[in-house]
């Protein structure tokens, strides 16, 4: 896995932020260590407990009385009460957490477990992760640092920076390297703390600025320490609380050249263990290749997948054929015929009834009346049918294939005629 | 590291996330986000290529800001700005061409065009007030 990691060259910048030609260092392997924000957070939480000072209430608090309960029968609650007389305090409740002047519930003790020990491996892995995250511009920006104008990330500066002695020069350096906007943000964020911390010597708050990691202090610390937000750190003593303040990875780090070169010896690579840390090798990542899009499009995965099913099946609403005529038609086209027949039959019945009624009552219907017209049409049609049938029955003497049709027509005629006289 | 890894780290934990009450999907304030939504696709930090549209300081036209894929770890050289000063239709066409011809994040084209049109629309002279004033006068 270590073979496939590309180690880009990181160029070194002079203290005037010009690229120092010819000196570029291969990215140390730490920067490819797995970034584990969960691990860093856990370790950070435990580590930050280690600088706590114990607090507790006085152990005699609430017990410096010789109170005793009055017992029952005195029309008062059975809480122990202060003995004696001649003062307000006499007869008041004592000892309980509910009493005024009593001791609290579960008085805080100094032997609470204030500090936490963290496994060495975890500490080292967290440090590696924090350093790795500081090399990713996305994470550094997401943590809130202003790095839009810096020349490169990770930012490596020549060792001359370690010799800066005056804060003025330090400011000029930060300006030149475009890290000053991060410091400006610190200035803007200076405010009073919310809460009681104000009166407990924690009055002011501000955010974190750039972190400068050096190898040898030749005046660097004293030059930079008065600039708000800037932290200094020695490579050999990397502090997770400074690398990932608040438990969040991705601090903006400025490395000096010698510090940067030292990282490989400190953390080693996956092939070679670390020289400085006994028994330490960079942690193995869970995924060697985290680029999901490339993985999903790779041949190995594509080969095993079935072809994509791109047919879009949309569910249609089921229509009830008994109520929806079109649905009925789809299922049974003959239903149209049946329905039409039903309609026509109904019409015929109505007409016949109208005629019969008219006859019965002796009303003469106008010739334009629909029933009369329908009747006339019917009579005409029957005459025509008769003629056609008659013609066809004469012909069979010459042709023998004719017979079947006239029989049918005769049958139809008979059917047609019979309902009429009946009604 | 890969954009997916970075997204998993950043998705709930970033200086740019803006969460407001009653709004399920948070917004994101980072500079290279076309829709200002906090989502994998639109995030401007984690991808090698990202687009965004910004108004020009003189209120005429807009500037398309995009990332150079080759300079991801050099923040000062990462960003390219292309101002568009032509009229609305021409500018939008050019923007579309810019993205499509270079096959640059074509999944962001509609969002970019929308943002550009929104900016252009805001730059149009405000007519409503004039109409109202005229109506008031006539009455």
From TrEMBL, chain A:
Keywords from the named record: Ribonucleoprotein, Ribosomal protein
Biased segments, Basic residues type: 379-398
SUPFAM superfamilies the record matches: Ribosomal protein L4
Region (Disordered): 367-423
One Pfam match: Ribos_L4_asso_C
Annotated signal peptide: none
Membership in a protein family: Belongs to the universal ribosomal protein uL4 family.
Protein name as catalogued: Large ribosomal subunit protein uL4 C-terminal domain-containing protein
Protein source organism: Iphiclides podalirius
Lineage per the UniProt record: Eukaryota, Metazoa, Ecdysozoa, Arthropoda, Hexapoda
Automatic annotation (TrEMBL), chain B:
Keywords: Ribonucleoprotein, Ribosomal protein
Keyword match Ribonucleoprotein: yes
Endpoints of the signal sequence: none
Entry keyword annotation includes Ribosomal protein: yes
Source organism, top-level taxon: Eukaryota
Cited Pfam families: Ribosomal_L28e
InterPro entries, A to Z: Ribosomal_eL28, Ribosomal_eL28/Mak16
Residue ranges annotated for the Ribosomal eL28/Mak16 domain, each copy included: 5-122
Family: Belongs to the eukaryotic ribosomal protein eL28 family.
Protein name stated in the entry: Large ribosomal subunit protein eL28
């Amino acid at each position: 896995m270590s073979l496939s990691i590309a180690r880009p060259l990181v160029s070194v910048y002079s203290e005037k932020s010009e690229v120092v030609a010819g000196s570029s260092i291969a990215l140390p392997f730490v920067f490819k260590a797995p970034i584990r924000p969960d691990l860093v957070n856990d370790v950070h939480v435990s580590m930050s407990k280690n600088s706590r000072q114990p607090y507790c209430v006085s152990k005699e608090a609430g017990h410096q009385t010789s109170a005793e309960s009055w017992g029952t029968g005195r029309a008062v609650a059975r809480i122990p009460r202060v003995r004696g007389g001649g003062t307000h305090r006499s007869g008041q409740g004592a000892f309980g957490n509910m009493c005024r002047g009593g001791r609290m519930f579960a008085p805080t003790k100094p032997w609470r477990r204030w500090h936490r020990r963290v496994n060495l491996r975890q500490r080292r892995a967290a440090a590696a992760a924090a350093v790795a995250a500081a090399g990713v511009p996305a994470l550094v920006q997401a943590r809130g640092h202003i790095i839009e104008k810096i020349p490169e990330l990770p930012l490596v500066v020549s060792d001359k920076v370690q010799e800066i002695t005056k804060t003025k020069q330090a400011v000029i350096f930060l300006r030149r390297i475009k890290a000053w906007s991060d410091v400006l943000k610190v200035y803007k964020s200076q405010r009073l703390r919310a809460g009681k911390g104000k009166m407990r010597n924690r009055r002011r708050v501000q955010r974190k600025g750039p972190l400068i990691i050096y190898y040898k202090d030749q005046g660097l610390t004293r030059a930079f320490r008065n600039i708000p937000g800037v932290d200094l750190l020695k490579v050999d003593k990397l502090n997770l609380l400074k690398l990932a303040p608040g438990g969040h990875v991705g601090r903006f780090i400025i490395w000096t050249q010698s510090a940067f070169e030292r990282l490989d010896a400190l953390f080693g690579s996956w092939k070679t263990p670390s020289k400085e840390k006994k028994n330490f090798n960079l942690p193995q990542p869970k995924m060697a290749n985290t680029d999901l899009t490339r993985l999903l499009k790779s041949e190995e995965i594509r080969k095993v997948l079935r072809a994509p099913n791109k047919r879009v099946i949309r569910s249609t609403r089921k229509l009830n054929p008994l109520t929806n005529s079109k649905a009925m038609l789809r299922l049974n086209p003959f239903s149209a015929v049946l329905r039409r027949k039903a309609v026509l039959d109904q019409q015929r019945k109505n007409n016949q009834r109208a005629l019969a009624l008219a006859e019965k009552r002796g009303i003469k219907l106008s010739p334009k009346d629909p029933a009369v017209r329908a009747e006339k049409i019917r009579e005409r049609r029957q005459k025509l049918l008769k003629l056609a049938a008659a013609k066809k029955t004469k012909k069979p003497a010459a042709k023998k294939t004719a017979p079947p049709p006239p029989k049918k027509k005769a049958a139809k005629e008979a059917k047609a005629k019979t309902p009429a006289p009946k009604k | 590291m890969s954009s997916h890894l970075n997204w998993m780290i950043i998705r709930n934990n970033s200086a740019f996330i803006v969460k407001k009450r009653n709004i399920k999907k948070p917004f994101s304030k980072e500079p290279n986000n076309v829709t200002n939504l906090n989502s994998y696709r639109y995030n401007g930090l984690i991808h090698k290529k990202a687009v965004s549209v910004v108004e020009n300081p003189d209120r005429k036209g807009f500037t398309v800001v995009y990332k150079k894929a080759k300079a991801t770890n050099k923040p000062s050289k990462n960003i390219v700005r292309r101002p568009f000063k032509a009229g609305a239709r021409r500018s939008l066409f050019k923007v579309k061409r810019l993205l499509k011809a270079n096959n640059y994040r074509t999944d962001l084209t509609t969002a970019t065009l929308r943002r550009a049109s929104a900016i252009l629309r805001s730059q149009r002279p405000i007519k409503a007030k004039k109409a109202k004033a005229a109506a008031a006068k006539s009455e």
